[in-house]
Amino acid sequence: MAVRASRMVSGLSSVARLNWGLVGGGEGSQIGPVHRMAARLDGEFSLAAGALDACPESSRAFALRLGIAEERAYGDWQDMLAAESARDGDDRLDLVTVATPNATHYPITRGFLEAGFNVLCEKPLTMTSDEAADIIAIARAHGRICAVNFGYSGYPLVREMRAMVRQGQLGRVRLVVVEFSHGHHAAGDDPDNPRIRWRYDPRQVGNSAQFADCGSHALHLASFVTGRQVERLSADFASCVPGRELEDDAMVAFRMQDGIVGRLWTSAVAVGRQHGLTLQVSGERGGLRWQQEQANQLYWCPVGGRVTVIERGEAGLSADAERASRIAVGHVEGMPLAFANVYADLALAIRSQACAGAEQEGSGGSPDDALLYPIAEDGFRTVAATEAAVRSAKRHGAWEDVPTVPDPI
Predict the structure, then answer these.
(1) Would you state the pLDDT for residue 409?
(2) Of 171, 168, 165, 158, nearest to 320 (Cα)?
(3) Fewer Cβ atoms within 10 A, N terminus or C terminus of the chain?
(4) What is the spatial order of strands in the sheet that 18-24 belongs to?
(5) pTM of the entire structure?
(6) SS3 at position 255
(7) Interatomic CA distance for residues 320 and 368, integer angstroms
(8) How confident is the model at residue 198 (pLDDT cuts 50, 70, 90)?
């Protein structure tokens, strides 16, 4: 079997690195280190500016320890926005990542987009679908990229699943089953654990906890792989740990375009499960199954045939999967490398955007349909689905329509 790594490391070329700014993701953050590793992995981005912590002193101190120049180590995002907006030419930021608590995503993303910066925002894009629609309109009006970090779509074999569906190998897709369930919030120690308690505080996360946090990733993967959007859903929410204002477990039935049936379970109290992100897609000709904790293997079974294991990195995979694969077959590629594929796609889109007359497509801004990073429209869809799920749960599982992305004005 051929052993190869198909991705070119552009940082080894003579092309200048792109300037990258980070808001949030400070010391002790769960997601901050992953973004820093992912953005730098291919040598495409250099961390040039940051407002990393809610405490101004901590923010500046941590930025300096990361090697950010003193004049670009900011105490808060407002100072960063004002100062960075005044820069131009080769010194200007090419991309700003927003990795802050949910309630701050909208004002920060909006501010940087309106100032002409490309933005990668952690999910959820915003707290409401109205805010998400506004972000889409701003990105379109300013011709900027607004991406949303559904980073699990960067796994090579997830992209292989998408390619196999698009190539018709499964025939008409009939069923999608997704899970994102773990047990790490089962102890109920929210008051004593700052990394947990904010996730169930509606003032910081909005109207949903577990579904918005993990279920949104699962729902995005269902659409990413099938190429179809969720039209209706029925939800059952539960708060299993006493005292939580928002759900820590959710079961959602959904219907997608073209009659695809969907099932989704997400939980934070499923003791015995570590991460629990799984995806199954069944069609008239065969089915696929993938689990993030064994991300190197994709299981394919044609109707009437035997299960075949497709290995990440082996010869004969789709161009999308090959492009997303970095190391030789048999070695595990994990979450930071999946996120790095999103950053690599963004780097290519930003460089294309910089070329005169580059064609804009939606808020994605890419002329190349091989670029698979999630855009603001994907963020809108998951926020709208979360709102529909909340309404449904309050109505004891009544079916609710999921609004479509607003048309350009």
Answers:
(1) 61
(2) 158
(3) C
(4) 45-51, 18-24, 95-99, 119-121, 146-148
(5) 0.91
(6) strand
(7) 12
(8) confident
